[in-house]
Amino acid sequence: MKKTLKFIAYLLLGLLVAYAAAHYAFWKLAASSCGNTVITETTSPAKRFKAVVFQRDCGATSGFSTQVSIVSAADSLPDEAGNTFTSDTDHGAAPASPAGGPKVSIEWEGEDSLLIRHHPKARVFTKQSTVNGALVRYQYAQ
To answer: How far is CA 62 from the centre of its chain?
Structure first.
């Protein structure tokens, strides 16, 4: 009886470890299947910051999104989601840009002030008001 219980305990432990490893591998692969395509970028007046509008595509199971990141002017866009603004067309409610996601425009209003314009029907997931010391303002645009 003890051997049977011990065997079952080791079997369950092995299955748990295998499940955890498979789960980790799946999410690691899912995260690495995303890619960013830069649409436009512009540096702040004194060249301290760079605002980047980009398309993030995570494969066939997700739609296109338009995102914005504010990074140091010397840095490249990291291969991750936008740190400032993320949106999609909400299944066609907002018009799509040629890149696939909703149209987004950016304009530096000063060294540490960025204006982001987007369609009012775009579904917004991230909308930060301050990023890396820069203030961000939003405005609807058609």
So the answer is: 12
8 A C-beta contact, residue 115 and residue 139: yes
Query: 79: helix, coil or strand?
Result: coil
Reading the chain (142 residues) residue by residue, the pLDDT tens digits are: 777 777 776 776 666 665 655 555 444 444 458 899 999 999 999 999 999 999 998 876 677 899 999 999 999 999 999 999 999 999 999 999 999 999 999 999 999 999 999 999 999 999 999 999 999 999 999 8
Q: Is 139 helix (H, G, I), strand (E, B) or coil?
A: strand
Domain coordinates of the chain in residue numbers?
1-32, 35-140
Residues 25, 27: Cα–Cα separation, whole Å: 6
> Under a CB-based contact definition with an 8 Å cutoff, are residues 41 and 16 in contact?
no
What is the pTM (predicted TM-score) of this model?
Answer: 0.76
In the numeric block, which tokens belong to residue 33? 């299947």
* Residue that has been written with the tokens 């999410």 in this structure: 27
The burial of 28, by beta-carbon neighbours within 10 Å (0-12 exposed, 13-18 middle, 19 or more buried), is given as: exposed
DSSP characters over 59-74: -TTS--EEEEEEEETT
